[in-house]
Amino acid sequence: ADVWSLGIVLTELVLGELIWSNLTKKSDIKQILGKMLALFMKEKETGENPFCFLLREHGAVGKLEDISPDLRSFIECCLTIKHSKRKNPVELVEHQLFLNCRRTEKVEDSIDIFPAVFRSGELELPVDSSKETTSGDDLLQERPIREIYHLWTLAGGDVFAELKKHDLIKTFPPVCNMPNVILHGGDTLGVAKDRNLLLDDSVVCLSLERVREQLSHVEPTAYYPLLVEKDPCAFESSEMKSLPVVIRERDVEYQFRRIVIFQRLLEGYPYTRDKIIKEARVDIPPLLRDKIWAALLNVT
């Protein structure tokens, strides 16, 4: 549907006007559907592409001379009636029209441009976007953003609530989102586009106050545990070990310590596989469950 819509938009740009601009009322839907059916029947009978049919209907066949053959071919590919024969977006990118737009040189140092792990200390935020002040030796800033976000949710953070607080998510009654027409194939017509689905480059800073509060008494050495110790989990109290796993998985400090230990062990895999197995017998933090199980099953 997106490829077909692109073809219609390009056709309107070539025409310099909207297609069937006189049919704008809700009562004109029947006529629009009739014209669409005529497009399908014309293509089936004569094999004529809808692009040429629309130009002839608007008396603008001469505009074919004003566009390049590559652009005409591209629009005709988009307006292919049969879905199975219509090119998908990946195939359209390889069209002759974009031959001169393709990148020929290789991007060097791509690892530096797109690092595998982003740390919160590397974020560039607006100066006045947050009232929190952090010291230069804040060890929490060295942790990956994915981990900090996980701890933030465990501490009670709700990203949807934050977005609603800043009026970036607005809900509407379901009756306002009902379509005017539902076709036999399941397609809907007359549904207003939800503005929430459009790109919004607003920046919302999530406060880490709760996370810092629950990790305030964690010793600095916990951020860089030594794996040569006999028991890396020596910090765990007997009370914490006796609690069910579901409770331990919701404890911010406990999950922080477990995540740090497992990340250090995973960095040394496969040489630390025995220690990973030993620690996994205690429990596995949900954040690293996929990587830990890959190590346990010896999947590389």
Automatic annotation (TrEMBL):
SUPFAM superfamilies linked: Protein kinase-like (PK-like)
GO molecular function: ATP binding; protein kinase activity
Keywords associated with the record: Kinase, Transferase
Pfam families on file: Pkinase (PF00069)
InterPro entries: Kinase-like_dom_sf, Prot_kinase_dom
Coiled coil: none
Gene3D superfamilies reported for this sequence: Transferase(Phosphotransferase) domain 1
Protein name, entry field: TBC domain-containing kinase
